[in-house]
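Regression check, guanosine-5'-triphosphate case 317:
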Amino acid sequence: MSEVKIQNIEDLTGVGPAIAEKFREAGYSTLEEIGTQSPGQLSDATGIGQESCAKYIKEAGKNAKIGSFLTGTELMEKRATVGKLTTSSSTFDELLGGGVETQSITEFYGQYGSGKTQFMLQLAVNAQLPVEQGGLGGEVAIIDTENTFRPERIISMAKALELDPDEVLSKIHVGRAYNSHQQMLMVKKVKEIAKEKPIKMLAVDSLTGAFRAEYIGRGTLAERQGKINAHMSALARFGDLHNAAVVVTNQVSSNPAAFFGDPTKPIGGNIVGHTSKFRIYLRRGKAGRRVCRLVDSPHLPENEALVSITEDGIRDG
Ligand code: GTP
Ligand code: MG
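Current build output:
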């Protein structure tokens, strides 16, 4: 009897439409995404019992393409397709090794008013520039959880680059998410859009705000981290599949007496940290400038660049 190879999450033993929906809602839509989790993580994120999760992970892992080896040459070829998106600051681009990379998650974190949203908007304009000008020659999707998208800012930034502001606006697809659940579902919507439009950048502003507001107290911490983790995996996958830059913003705790005591620590702690390949810590500097610090990058030295936020957008400081 030949074994039927399973391909979808519904094909897993004991997974019906209701459980499949739970997985999808938590951001797991492929065997690979399930097969690479630990039972605890998967259970926290979906509310399904750990024992069942362990069974699903085992079966998903056997049937997904996990752990296949690539040669150094193949990996080098994949690296060669990585695009670099300019930030409009040459010193900051240099710090990043050429710009914000595609196929990676870049996280901007910092306090209120540090410039996270301004960076995201600038990158949304720049992503539309041709590759020769430091762009990605594509369109942009933004998952906006804080209602901070400002078309007026896009228009100023586009005009400063001598781009047609209406055209630039028409290539930015903004999805407003009112809670973390919608935020996670939005990634699926972006995948739909990407079937029709060449989405080369996906931004989430803010990645953690809704989670932070909804999961309060120690008891819910594991569940929150599980969900953020699933969300980050979905984002990373999108970046990989579409050779897109993924940009997320994250706040730091502003209340020194809070549970997350250190005001320079980003929300979401290690889980966000381990999935973001590039983390940039923004803080206010002298005379309205912003200090951008590259923190724990895999192949670049930790260093700082100084930028200004001007009417025209981000510029060298
Ligand atoms: P939260 O989302 O509240 O955590 O803050 P954020 O880090 O996203 O800050 P944001 O990017 O919104 O930065 C706001 C700051 O950018 C303002 O305080 C201004 O200093 C600067 N800024 C925003 N728009 C303009 C503008 O049109 N001209 C100039 N010169 N500066 C601007
Ligand atoms: Mg903001």
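Comparison notes: The two ends are 69 Å apart (CA to CA). The chain has a mean pLDDT of 90. No diff flagged against the previous build.
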